[in-house]
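Sample entry (418 residues):
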Amino acid sequence: MSFIPVPANSDFSFQNLPYGVFSTADNPRCRIGVAIGDQILDLSVILSLFQGPLMSKNQGVFEQPTLNAFMALGFEAWKETRATLKSLLSATDSTLRDDVSLRSRAFVHQSAATMHLPAEIGDYTDFYSSRDHATNVGIMFRGKENALMPNWLRLPVGYHGRASSVMVSGTPLRRPSGQMRPDQTKPPVFGPSKQLDIELEMAFFVGGGNTLGEPIPIEKAHQHIFGMVLMNDWSARDIQAWEYVPLGPFLGKNFGTTISPWVVPMEALLPFAVPNALQDPEPLPYLQHTDPYTFNINLFVSVKGQGMAESAVICKSNFKHMYWTMKQQLAHHTVNGCNLRPGDLLASGTISGPDPESFGSMLELSWRGSKTIDLGGGETRTFLLDGDEVTITGHCEGEGYRVGFGSCSGTVLPARQH
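Predicted structure, serialized as tokens:
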């Protein structure tokens, strides 16, 4: 237990302690904090309290405006830092609890904070690791017989996205314009996307990195996975459908990706690990691992239109539905010698489960626009309208506590006039 009171339904329990970057009106400098209950512990104020053998020499990372330098210190430094935080925040440690002056400087109410991107993201990779999602999309575009491409069950399919357009939760999203070909008998047209969609995803930040030419073996992959965030990888389906052959996603994807601001460390998620998906055919040796590294994370997507009093949940899914694990994604990404750097972001791809309510995109929920999604009160959607606010939430449920991610939200703005 912590001396900071935490309600049972709070995402930010003593068992969680996620990292984020925040600022306040009276101190606009971006700084690193840890969420607990409705508070943020400002690590720049207490950096001298990190006295372990690794962090005593690296206290300066907590004065940085991003998490990159801390991520770069590696696995053992993260473990040591978390142990120190657990001790300092525990009900039995007097260091923070009884120092009124230090507490007043070290804690900020979350409502007084502005959250920022937790890291400088040098590169962003989006995978395609949900079998249910890949099958659904394959059926729509190629039919049941060719739903999964021949490589899908052999390797974690992915592509490199655009890091510059990754946004923190709460940032509005401008509807993109581009080329589309709605009528296959006519030439393409240009205009605002009419099939703006969401993608329910999660992503992890890379820490530690690797040298160019040196793969990360799957046995050590966990040492390079710092923590996880929620993600909405907005998609313009009509732009994407016209452009993606033969090289894959481009303007239909790179206009915006939203992530939640709090990075939940993997150590907080390990108690919620569940057995990995049964993989048949068996992957090649460099992708094999037997320890469970997928997680029971409940995920929800809601939409609130401009005229709606309350948001409507359109998707209830779970991260445990993923076919390829984060370890496999990381090992595959580097097996050719590709170098990853601290702060790189690797995303899961759309998370869909086997049931229609667990489909993680409107493309699936409306089955390519052939049926409507009921939002209640007479409101329906096939794809997003201007003014729609999309919110993704997620949490693991422990006994009397949660390990949650906060929210990942964004509101659709009208397209710019061309």
